[in-house]
Specification:
Largest sheet of chain B: 2 strands, antiparallel
Oligomer: heterodimer
Organism (chain B): Caldibacillus thermoamylovorans
CATH class of chain B: Mainly Alpha
Largest interface: A-B, 51 and 47 residues
Number of strands of chain A: 0
Protein name (chain B): Putative ABC transporter permease protein YufQ
Radius of gyration of chain B: 20 Å
Distance between the termini of chain A: 21 Å
Number of helices of chain B: 12
Keywords (chain B): Cell membrane, Membrane, Transmembrane, Transmembrane helix
Membrane topology (chain B): Multi-pass membrane protein
CATH architecture of chain B: Orthogonal Bundle
Number of helices of chain A: 15
CATH architecture of the largest domain in chain A: Orthogonal Bundle
Subcellular location (chain B): Cell membrane
CATH topology of chain B: ABC transporter involved in vitamin B12 uptake, BtuC
Shape of chain B: globular
Order of helices and strands of chain A: HHHHHHHHHHHHHHH
Helix content of chain B: 55-70%
C-alpha cells in the first residue's frame, strides 16, 4: 500500500470501526444504537440552530488541532495546548473588559492578547527544550495545571467572584447575520479566523524557508544541524507559533462562545481533543480541518443523545473518540492485519 | 495548638494526601522503567476511583467493615486490565505512547461518567459511600512519647501501606532479578533481548503493574478524600503522581519523598488557614508548587533527572 493511500485509508477505517465499536457498547449497555446515532445526526444537522452550534464547536477544535499538528511537524509534542488555551481565553476576556476602544482596534487587540498569552505559555517549554534539552511533554503537562490555577486566581482577583463580567461588544466576535440565520445560536465570526489561520499555517509549512526548516528539524535534528540550520531557534519558534494558535482557540471561547471567563475545577478538554483532531488529521493542516469537523460535530451532536427516546449519556462520544484514536495511533494493527490476510491468500 | 499538635496535624494531613500519589507514582516508576510512558495514569486513577466507589456502594451489605479494602482490590484488578489497552496499542501495535495514553485518559473520563449516569438514573455523581477509610492508632508505637503522637496516633492505615509499598517497590526494582530485567528493557531493549529477556512481555508487566497501582491510588483517593465519584473527583492527581516520579528521579523512594512533599502542599491548601504563617500565603502558590517544582527539576535546577533511555520507543526485533 502506498503511503499517501494509507494516510487517508487508516483514519477512515478507524472512524468506521470507532462508530461500530461505539454501537456495540451502546447496545451492550441496554440502549438502542440506531436511535442513538439518529439523534446524534439530528443533533448536528437537525435545524439551523444546531448547525450553527456545531460550527461554533468546530471552530476552537480547528485551532487546537492545528496547534498540536504544527508542533508535531517539528517533532515536538505540545500536550500543553489545554493550558495555552486557558491563558489565551483569560487574556482575551481581560482585554475585552478592561479597555474602551473602537471595535476595529479592540477586537484585534483582544485576539492578539490571547495569541501572545498562549505563545508565552508555550515559550517556556520551547526555551527549556532548546537550551537544556528538557522533554517538552513533561513541562507542558505541568504548565497545564499551573495555567488552570493561575487563571483561577487571576479571575477571582479581577472579578471578586467566580465569573467575570461580559466583554465589551467592541471586542466580541458576534455577527448579527449569523445569529439571524441560525435561530440565535452562538455561532460567531471566529470560524473565519480559524480558516484564515489554517491557510497561513499551510502556507508557512509548504511555501516558506521557515516551514522547510521546521519540518526538517522534525525529520532529523542531526541532519538539520549538519545542513547549517539553527535547530534550537527553530524549536522555540515552533512552540511559540503553536502556543499562539492555541491562544487563539482560547479567544474563540472568550470572545465568541461565552464572552466571559469563569473559574474552572477541571480542564476544558478542548486542548486534549485537539490532540485527537491532529492525530486523525495526520498532522496536516487540511487534515486537521476534517478532523475538527468530525470531532467537533460529534461532540456537539452528542448533546442530543440523552434526550428521549435514546436517553444515552453524551459521554459515550468521548469513548468513541478515544477508540478512534486508538485505532489511528495503532496504524501497525492494520498493516499486521493486511499482512496476515495476504499471507493466508498466498497459502491458498 | 501546641507545637506537637501542629506538627502531628501537618504530618498526618501530608501523608493522608500523599497516599494515593505514592501508589500511583510507584506505578509510574514501574511502567517508565520498562520503557513505556503511561500518561494515561490520570485516567487509570479515574477508573480506580470509580470502581472503588461503585464496589463500595454495592458490596457494602456483603462485606461490612472490610468493604473498603475489597473495593481497593477490585479497583486494582480493573485498573490493571484497563491499562492493558495501553500495552496492547503501544507495545504490540507500536502506537505513540503519549497518544495512546491521551486516548486512555479520554476513554476513562467518558466511560466512568457514562456508567455513573447509566447506574444512577442520569445523575453525573454517585451517592456518598457509607464506609470510608478510617483512622486508627497503631498499637504499641502510639505510646512512644512525642514521636508516638506525631506519627502513630490517629493515622490512616493506607498512608502507611503506601510508604511500605514504596519500600517494597524499591527492593523489587533494585534488588531482585525481576527488577533488573524490567530496568534493562527500559534502558537497552536490544541488549536485554540478546540476553534472552522477553522485551515486550516485560513491558506488558510494567504497564499492568502501573495500572494496578494507579487503580489502588484512585480507589484510595475517592474513598478517603471525596467519598463519591463525579467528573471532578480526579483532576490532575494522576499527572501529579507522574510529576512525583520525575521529581524523585524514577526511584521509588525518591518518588515517595516527592509525593509526601506534594501531599503536604496539597493539604496546605485545605488546612493552611488553621496554621499560623501558612495562612498568609495565597493558596494559588500552594496549588502550583508541585508543578513548578517539577519543571525546575526536569530543567536540572534541582539535581538532574534522567529518564530511562528507551522510553517512548517501541521495540522492533532486528532493528538497531
Amino acid at each position: 500500500m502506498s503511503k499517501r493511500w494509507t494516510s487517508i485509508l487508516i483514519p477512515v477505517l478507524a472512524v468506521i470501526l470507532g462508530l461500530l465499536v461505539g454501537a456495540v457498547i451502546i447496545a451492550i449497555s441496554g440502549y438502542n444504537p440506531i436511535v442513538g446515532y439518529t439523534q446524534l445526526w439530528e443533533g448536528i444537522f437537525g435545524d439551523s440552530y444546531v448547525i450553527g452550534e456545531s460550527i461554533r464547536q468546530i471552530t476552537p477544535y480547528v485551532l487546537a488541532g492545528l496547534a498540536v499538528a504544527f508542533a508535531f511537524k517539528t517533532g515536538l509534542f505540545n500536550i500543553g495546548v489545554e493550558g495555552q488555551l486557558i491563558v489565551g481565553w483569560f487574556a482575551a476576556v481581560y482585554v475585552g473588559i478592561s479597555f474602551d476602544l473602537p471595535a476595529y482596534i479592540h477586537l484585534p487587540l483582544a485576539i492578539l492578547a490571547a495569541g501572545l498569552a498562549g505563545a508565552f505559555w508555550a515559550f517556556i517549554p520551547g526555551i527549556l527544550k532548546a537550551k537544556l534539552g528538557v522533554n517538552e511533554v513533561v513541562v507542558t503537562i505541568m504548565l497545564n495545571y499551573t495555567a488552570l490555577h493561575v487563571t483561577n486566581a487571576l479571575i477571582r482577583s479581577i472579578a471578586k467572584g467566580d465569573t467575570t463580567e461580559q466583554i465589551a461588544q467592541t471586542a466580541s466576535l458576534r455577527i448579527p447575520f449569523f445569529e439571524e440565520i441560525t435561530q440565535y445560536s452562538r455561532l460567531h465570526g471566529g470560524i473565519f479566523i480559524a480558516i484564515l489561520t489554517v491557510i497561513i499555517i499551510w502556507f508557512i509549512l509548504e511555501k516558506t524557508t521557515l516551514g522547510y526548516e521546521l519540518k526538517a528539524a522534525g525529520f532529523s535534528q542531526d541532519a538539520s544541524k549538519y545542513a547549517g540550520m539553527n535547530v534550537p531557534r527553530n524549536i522555540v519558534i515552533s512552540m511559540v507559533i503553536s502556543g499562539f494558535i492555541a491562544g487563539l482557540a482560547g479567544a474563540m471561547e472568550g470572545l465568541g462562545t461565552f464572552e466571559y471567563v469563569s473559574t474552572k475545577t477541571a480542564m476544558t478538554g478542548i486542548g486534549f481533543d485537539g490532540i485527537a483532531v491532529a492525530v486523525l488529521g495526520g498532522n496536516n493542516p487540511i487534515g486537521v480541518v476534517f478532523g475538527a469537523i468530525l470531532f467537533g460535530a460529534l461532540k456537539y451532536g452528542s448533546l442530543n443523545m440523552p434526550n428521549p427516546p435514546a436517553q444515552i449519556p453524551e459521554e459515550m462520544i468521548s469513548v468513541i473518540i478515544a477508540v478512534i484514536i486508538f485505532f489511528v495511533a495503532s496504524g501497525y494493527l492494520f498493516q499486521w492485519l493486511y499482512e496476515k490476510f495476504s499471507k493466508k491468500k498466498g497459502v491458498k | 495548638m501546641s507545637l506537637t499538635d501542629t506538627i502531628a496535624f501537618i504530618f498526618y494531613n501530608a501523608i493522608f494526601y500523599a497516599a494515593p500519589l505514592i501508589f500511583t507514582g510507584l506505578g509510574a516508576v514501574f511502567t517508565e522503567r520498562s520503557g513505556v510512558t503511561n500518561i494515561g495514569l490520570e485516567g487509570v486513577m479515574q477508573i480506580g476511583a470509580f470502581t472503588g466507589i461503585i464496589s463500595n456502594l454495592f458490596l457494602h451489605d456483603i462485606f461490612g467493615g472490610a468493604t473498603v479494602f475489597v473495593s481497593i482490590m477490585i479497583a486494582m484488578i480493573v485498573g490493571s486490565l484497563f491499562s492493558s489497552l495501553l500495552a496492547i496499542s503501544s507495545v504490540t501495535f507500536r502506537s505513540d505512547q503519549i497518544i495512546a495514553g491521551t486516548a486512555l485518559n479520554m476513554l476513562a473520563a467518558g466511560a466512568t461518567i457514562f456508567l455513573v449516569k447509566k447506574l444512577f438514573e442520569g445523575k453525573g455523581q454517585t451517592p456518598m459511600v457509607k464506609d470510608a477509610i478510617t483512622r486508627f492508632d497503631i498499637p504499641v508505637l502510639e505510646n512512644i512519647p512525642v514521636i508516638g503522637k506525631i506519627f502513630f496516633q490517629n493515622v490512616y492505615l493506607t498512608s502507611y501501606l503506601a510508604i511500605l509499598a514504596a519500600i517494597v517497590g524499591w527492593v523489587i526494582l533494585f534488588k531482585t532479578p525481576f527488577g533488573l530485567r524490567l530496568r534493562s528493557v527500559g534502558e537497552h531493549p536490544t541488549a536485554a533481548d540478546t540476553m534472552g529477556i522477553k522485551v515486550n512481555r516485560m513491558r506488558y508487566i510494567g504497564v499492568m503493574i502501573s495500572g494496578a497501582l494507579g487503580g489502588i491510588g484512585g480507589a484510595i483517593y475517592a474513598q478517603s478524600i471525596t467519598l463519591d465519584y463525579s467528573h471532578a473527583t480526579i483532576s490532575g492527581q494522576g499527572f501529579m503522581a507522574i510529576a512525583a516520579m520525575i521529581f524523585g528521579k524514577w526511584n521509588p523512594l525518591g518518588m515517595m519523598g516527592a509525593a509526601i512533599f506534594f501531599g503536604f502542599a496539597q493539604s496546605l491548601s485545605t488546612i493552611g488557614p488553621s496554621i499560623p504563617f501558612i495562612k498568609d500565603i495565597p493558596t494559588v502558590y500552594l496549588y502550583i508548587l508541585p508543578y513548578v517544582l517539577t519543571i525546575l527539576a526536569v530543567a536540572g535546577f534541582i539535581g538532574k533527572s534522567v529518564a530511562p533511555k528507551a522510553l517512548n520507543t517501541p521495540y522492533i526485533k532486528g532493528s538497531r
